[in-house]
Amino acid sequence: MSKEISRRTFIKGGVAVGAALAAGTYFKWEGKNIPLDVREGNVTYDVLIIGSGGAGMRAALEASKEKGLRVAVMTKMVPTRSASTMAQGGMNGCTGVTDAEDTIESHVFDTVKGADYLCDQDAVEYFAEMAGKTIYEMDYMGYPYNRQEDGSFHQRKMGGSSHARAAYYEDSSGHAMVHALFEQCLANNVEFISECQLLEIVAKEGKFSGVVAIDMRSGNLISIPAKSIIVATGGYGRAYWIRTTNPYSSTGDGIAAAMRIGIPFKDPEMVQFHPTGLASNGVLLSESSRSEGAYLLNKNNERFMQRYAPKQMELATRDIVARAIETEINEGRGIGEGLHAAVYLDFRHIPKKILLERLGQVYDLSKRFEGVDIAKQPVPIRCSCHYSMGGLEVSDYKTTATRIPGVFAAGECSCISIHGANRLGANSLSEVLVFGRTAGIGAADYAKKNPSYQGNKDDLAESRTKWLEKFAETTQRTSGPSVTEIRDKMAETMWYKAGVYRDEKQLQEAAGEIDKLMAQYQNCVVGDASHTYNTAFMNYIEVGNLLEISKAIIIGATARKESRGGHSRKDYPKRDDKNFLKHTLVFKDGNTYKTEYQDVVITKYPPQERKY
Amino acid sequence: MKYAFFPGCVLKGAAAEAYTSMMKVSEVLGIELVEIPNWTCCGASHAQGVDDLAALTVNARNISIAEHMGLPIMTVCNTCTLQLRQAKARLDEDAALRGKVNEILKKAGHPYEYQGTSEITHFLWILDDHPEVFNGKIKQKLTGLKVASFYGCHLLRPPKVMNHEDGRNPRSMEKLLQILGAEPVDFSYRLKCCGFHAFFTAEHDVLKVTGEIVDAAAEAGAKIIVTPCPLCQMQLDMYEEEGRKATLSQAELPVLHLQQLIGFALGFTNKDMGIERHVSGQYKVNF
Amino acid sequence: MMITLQIHRFVDDKKWIQEYKLETQKGMTILEGFNEIKAKQDATLSFTSSCRSSICGACAVRVNGNAELACEILLEDLVKRYKTDTLTVQPLGNFRVIRDLIVDWIPKYEKMKKIDPVVRPKAEFTPAKGCKQSIEDFAKYKKYAGCILCGSCVSECNKSALDEKDFLDPFIFVKAAKITEDSRDRSPEDHLRAVVQAGLWKCFNCQECTAKCPKDLDPAGAIEKLKAASIALTGDGSVGANHAKAIYNDIYTKGMLDESKLAVQSEGMLSAAMRVPVAYRLMKTGKLNMFEKIPENKDIHEIRQIIDIAEKENK
């Protein structure tokens, strides 16, 4: 039973604290965002999924097929708010319905080349084999695909793809996926634990026990024992804060938490800068803009991609286009100055009917945030951190297991690696669906094979106590730097010193600056002492996670002394297969970081020069 | 100023006083109204929920007759205005749909095509655009009369179709009241729904909101409620008693059609404006 | 431009209105305003947001009584519309409030389950081979797939404000319309019956939902589609359907509404008989004339032809 005690009272009353903690809860529960038996501490999940985006919900649907397994999705928001909704272009998969010449082989090669040869080719082969099947499966699940004459879903060509293989819904393909999956979750009564911020994945000495989270609504700390967990918390673009296409929620929470239990962060330096984010606020203008024919122009009205990728032009891979744009700006051919410099994306030659039909969102975003009617004027754009190729190391792509038994990872937060050093447009939606499903099966199988709970509930209780104290301490602080100050300084450091172009000196400076910010973070002010839906505390946790991730990005970028895909070193401008055809693995042990390397798995395609 | 007049069903039935007062008022204001011959019911938003194409074509017919008269259409009922304007918007935007509808009109033996040459506008909008019609005509300024304007949903929304003014902050009624010398009173239900169209399916709720609207207007100090829609007028007037019961309110206010209030300012009497047909608060109207 | 935001706050059991002054720039959204306030003035101001580009639906709030997607609406446009530099901000209407501008979505998902919110594919389709659908059929429902579950449509819903227990939020009707208009679904009738059961015909037709939808989905139009489909496919015999059919049939028979018969045609003799006291009151003032004969429209044959031909078009 829960009792109502004000936090100050309970902090001061030692015995009362013990009693309250033993009881497990001390603030009044608010509504039904958490199942009753979770509140009461009466359930051990077979599969607990963290993150309700594409990968998370797909995993839940799959794991839920096993009757007799207790499965739930935990999310810090409510379902359907994830970054998955922002994907616009489509999902790649070889089916041949639009382009009969397409082959799985071709999808594999395009992905490998797109990844600048840093992806693990055995996993990519598995991925490409499953991707086409996934499209049919989603059709059956009610995904609203745009159609072609013969009634099949229509597929279009995205950047870096040699064939038209991206099935889509208008220019909101990710949004449609999220809602199709959510409909299925509702129809199948998938359990959701909503508005719960993950604080810790508890796995002492490699023994996974469960998670500790804070119920945002009541402020109660909850610990949830689980036999397996699938981390599906998405990417970490907010390390660059304003200069990202990612939503406010993309703070790498699961990656940070999993690093703390010994899972390495693989290829953290591999961050994709999407070429076309709106100049004013970083919001994404879909790559389908370019696949529908838009031109990139510099201030001299020149289609400058001619000089960087003469064959594919605007449809070269994102890293190539992003670097081209940055170079144009750096060499003075951009419009505007400094942080507001940009180049133009020109749609004027495309019939307005096509713009409204296929690029409705792009049209709308340009009008609203830049005040530009793209049928009449070009719109100013610049790079934004868009996708995290790096992520939690997945040890077995056939199950998405990590090196900690019981812990799985899928979606953008994972690094299998499918995308290597650069992701192709429309490969992400396919990835989250393919590996979401794989994770659901993998975790469910693991739970079935290990039917009795192997974790330690005392470890969970200990962790919960620690977080209880942390919450009280941090929310009561009244003097110190603010969370947003630290966040904004981190973003500046990351954008200017660990952004599109990097070098040794700047990376070293960045490392020092992040260390300083981490020290400041220990004394920062949350600014809200309430236990009820304390979003300031949530932001505090998120910034803490981003600092750890930023540190890892810098470590990875420093270690990789070459340029490959999205990682560009001014001091090492060439790709160095001899020394760096390998993955960076950044480990966190307490407060120390350690870097290891892992060979890239090559099956069919030894590295070649990457030209488009 | 000359218009093809679309009175709508209730002006010929339960809201006959709205019709007679409109005729008197339009004559004084110099607005010539020629009733559209053989007009049909606009569908009242209900026929549209039975067969959309049939209802659309029926309204295409209505509009085409006015087009043939070479006149813009004036309406005095919010729902008629919305149905006709929505029909026009859809037919004007979609050439294929327009072709289909004209085919049906032709097959049915209707002599005219829908061409899109007649605008459809409500009496209130005409006055808002042409306040000069009142010049020299106001015989009795409604000084000191506190009036609450109940706009009625279908004149305000949806914004793409009902775009005379911003439906979130309309001011046409208040401006008009000031011309008449009355004192507009703001109240929290000014832009809400009277529930007329859901009377049979959500009666309990509708009677509750009927009471709430009248009560809110009275609370805000209004002595009269005025509305440009005869359906709202019917709902609030005919069921004011049930509304009081549902909300335990004591408020009793007369609910006037827009043209009646204007008529009083032009010098007409209760009898002229058909007040004896009202159900509630009759005795509070003294002109 | 300096503006004032009066934000309705609610933390634990305390309710109050807090005033914030904000220096705005051109092109600043109200969400950016909230972020600015939270970062620089008051870290306790709480609201939900994620994508800041009008696709995740997390940030809808009420400004001066009207729902807005906070990441989309510009402060300068609000100032222009309401002709004031002081704006009142509240959480969305017709939701339970948890704290400040944060509302409870969980009960809405439970409601959504009432309509079986998923496509049940026809027998000829399989997960392995997917489905087939013509371009025309896709066009019939594609708009409704754009719903971002932002809740703006229900915020000022006049019916929900009076009683939401026997009704559905407009976004649920949009979901239902999406499914029933989707040719891949094997039994729109089932979804339609569920929607009627959940209160479809209680809609006031007030158009607030359509007016507020930031994605232009026209939920009120979706509701009309559901009504017509319900009548066509399930022989809907509810009061609402009968009322609509009565008006429709009046147009066919006379060209105009026959008010005296409306109650009986909608509700049946027994229920209509309960209305005698009101009817009497109306007859006293002359509002209702039970014996009035509505004349037939002179062009009634043409009108009937129109309806007959249009109906055949749909088959």
The geometry of chain B reads as globular
Number of strands of chain B: 8
Largest interface: B-C, 67 and 72 residues
CATH hierarchy, class of the domain at 460-573 and 589-599 in chain A: Mainly Alpha
Would you identify the CATH architecture of the domain at 460-573 and 589-599 in chain A? Up-down Bundle
State the total count of DSSP E strands of chain A: 21
Low-confidence stretches of chain B: none
Shape of chain A: globular
Q: How far from one another are the termini of chain B?
A: 28 Å
Number of helices of chain B: 13
CATH topology (level 3) name of the domain at 460-573 and 589-599 in chain A: Methane Monooxygenase Hydroxylase, Chain G, domain 1
In DSSP terms (H or I, runs of 4 or more residues), the helix count of chain A works out at 18
* Proportion of strand residues of chain B: 5-15%
Oligomer: heterotrimer
Calculate the terminal CA-CA distance of chain A, rounded to whole Å: 65 Å
In round numbers, the mean pLDDT of chain A is 92
Biggest beta sheet attributes of chain B? 4 strands, parallel
* Portion in helices of chain A: 25-40%
* Share of helix of chain B, binned: 40-55%
Question: Which structural class do you get from the secondary structure elements of chain B?
Answer: alpha/beta
Radius of gyration of chain A: 24 Å
